[in-house]
Amino acid sequence: MKNLLITLLAAAATLAATAQTPQTEPEPEGYRFTDAKVLEMTPVKNQHRSGTCWCFSTMSFLEGEILRAGGKPVHLSEMWIVRHSFMEKAEKYVRMHGELNFAEGGAAHDVTEGIKKYGIVPFEAYPGLNYGTDKPDFHELTAALKAFLDSVIATADRSGKPLSTAWKRAFNAMLDEYFGHMPDTFVYEGKEYTPQSFAASLPVSMDNYIDITSFTHHPFYTQFVLEVPDNWMWGKVYNLPLDEMMAVIDHALANGYPVAWGTDVSEKGFSRTKALGIVPEADLDGMSGTEAERWGKLTEREKEAALYKFDKPGKERTITQEMRQEAFDNYETTDDHGMVIVGTARDQAGTPYYKVLNSWDDLPPYGGHWYFSRPFVAYKTTDIMVNKNALPKEIAKKLGLK
Questions:
Q1: N or C: which end of the chain has fewer CB within 10 A?
Q2: Tell me: the pLDDT tens digits for 192-230?
Q3: CATH class for the region spanning 28-279+316-398
Q4: Sign for the pseudo-dihedral over CA of 106, 118, 128, 272
Q5: What's the CA gap between 362 and 368, in Å, rounded?
Q6: Residues 293-322, buried b or exposed e (16+ Cβ, 10 A)?
Q7: How many CA atoms lie within 13 A of 50 on its CB side?
């Protein structure tokens, strides 16, 4: 009897201790991706402290195109194009009396148009880092360039006299000091080139690349100047309905073509730590009555916190053409960043995603790559650049392209 009593007391003590021990929360499920198709690309680059994603992404895009066309891996000089763009941008900025966006940003067509005009060189021939760092750092450079141009404009406006004949030479000298003098010729892999002959040696033609977007404030199947601040060149884009723009992306990837992607990364659904972009929505249809009632009582802040935990895959919004237009018109979609769509993947729930090459260094969790849901790409794409040969035939015909 005594032994039984001791056993019962011990069991009771164990139960009490267990009841007092706090239950640990289960580990978040997270996102787990399985790549479906990933194109061969050159290594991830690092734009570092420079707003030149447009150039890094487009150069990576073209390097991928070179590989697709059977060429050797090459690292094209981003700063060759950035330096030339600063000069062109300066001339237009002064001509417009400063009523133009003079900044580090740009667009994919700045690269292709720049290569047409100025050729291109490999990174080894022109790193463009002549200011004491081994990575791009524009914190002083851009401020100094803009201050000089503003003084030129202000002096001319105040005096009423013509601009001096020296300002372009002076500005060009500043560019040379920051980026380095541009070579007329260089040797690469044992052969001498000019920038133009090197561009001609590549197995790609800049005439094959077009920009595409999808907005309703211009007619579909026409070209228009995309009204974003970084389009200082006033380059034109082809306008397609949303479903056809998405079809171009899918068709390009399926046939081995990468896609240069301009997008908005100021979204709550864009997570730098998770390397993920989503457009979540509450799954009210999948909630029980009690869950739906509880959801309805949450504040907007609480709902937002629940939606953007990035703890596991969930329902996402269905994106419409009207949603895209409204977000663009209300400044909710802005031209923040350029990357390259290089493949497709699925999460553990079987939901499709795009795999994207970024230019923020080879960082975890995916080695400098990101995953974006189809709704995010449909919603937040400002424009894409693609080889016109990657278009579905029926869409190419609608745009008047052969």
A1: N
A2: 999 999 999 999 999 999 999 999 999 999 999 999 999
A3: alpha beta
A4: positive
A5: 4
A6: eeeeeeeeeeeeeebeebeebbbbbebebe
A7: 27
